[in-house]
Each structure stands twice: as structure tokens, then as C-alpha cells.
Amino acid sequence: MDTSTLIWIIVGIAIVLAIVLVALLVTARGRRERRREHQHDRAEKLRADARETEIEAREHEAEAARARADAAAAAAEAEAARARAAEASVQSEKRAGTIDDHRSDAERLRAEQAETLRKADAVDPYVDTANERAHADDTVRPRDDTDVDAVSTTDAADGPVSRDGRTERG
User: Fold this and answer.
1) Taken in order 35, 39, 44, 49, is the CA torsion positive or negative?
2) What CA–CA distance (Å, rounded) separates 80 from 85?
3) What does the alpha-carbon distance between residue 87 and residue 93 come to, in Å, rounded to a whole number?
4) Where is the composition biased (Basic and acidic residues) (predicted)?
């Protein structure tokens, strides 16, 4: 081969190498841009995922706050119910004490009434106390004066007075 051919081959190879080198430089810049674009897209996707995660975290926090509020409300309601129950228990005990007081007062008043009737019968000359004592075990004396006949008693100032309050003239 000739030297001129050899020089042309070397020049051709150098030109091809220069073209390849320029092509690589041009495409390398594009590849670098695409890689940077890809990295940027990936970073944006990660940011979007982070925002979604933040939103989910806030939703969970809000749900937890609602649950805490509901639990606090339920606890307050339960405490109020316990307070009402305690108050009702106190009222019940008061009323039970009042019932016992009323019952004992009623028994005391009945005993006083019976004693007063015995005294009245003892003072009354028209009442046969011996006969009533014999029948005291058989019958129970009525609790009110509506079933008792008007029996006369004497009033020192006005003369004879019946149990129903009318004066006897006779």
C-alpha cells in the first residue's frame, strides 16, 4: 500500500473517531439530562409519597384524637352515672330512714290513741270496762272513731259531752 492511501486511511479513522467522540459528547449530555430528569421524577414521586404518608398520619392522629375524645366522653358519662347512682343510693337511704321514722311515728300514735281510748273508757261511767277486757282478746278496736258509737263522757264545765263532740241535754 501506498503511503498516501495509508495517510487517507489514518485520516478517515481519525475523522470517524472524531465523529464518534462528538456523538458521544452530544449523547452523553442528553443521557446526563435524562438521568437527571429521571432522578428528579423519582424525587418528586418520593415527595408525593411522603405527602400522602403525612396526610394518612394526620388522619390517623385525628382518628386517635376522636377516639380519645369519645373515650373521655364515655368516661365522663360513666362518672356522671356513678354520681347519679350514688345520689340515688343516698336518697334511697334517706327515704328508707324516713319510712322507718314514719312507721315508728304511726305505731307511737296508734299506741297513744289506744291509751287515750283506754283512759276515756276508764273515765266513762257508761262503758263496761270489765266486759271489754274479757273480749279484748277476741276483737280488735277500730282505728278511727267512725265505727264507734257516740258514747257519752262528762265535761266538768259543760256537762255531759259525747265522743263525737256534741253535748247531751237530757
Assistant:
1) positive
2) 8
3) 10
4) 36-69, 92-122, 130-145, 161-170
**For the segment 140-167, what is each residue's pLDDT rounded down to a tens digit?**
444 444 444 444 445 444 455 555 554 5
Nearest CA among 119, 115, 130 for reference residue 153: 119
Cell of 7: 495517510
Render the burial of 22-52: b for 16+ CB within 10 Å, e for the rest. eeeeeeeeeeeeeeeeeeeeeeeeeeeeeee
For residue range 49-104, list pLDDT tens digits in order.
999 999 999 999 999 999 999 999 999 999 999 999 999 999 988 888 788 888 89
Tracing cell 324516713 back to the chain, one arrives at 98
What residues form DSSP beta bridges with 160? 154
Cβ atoms of 150 and 166 within 8 Å: the answer is yes
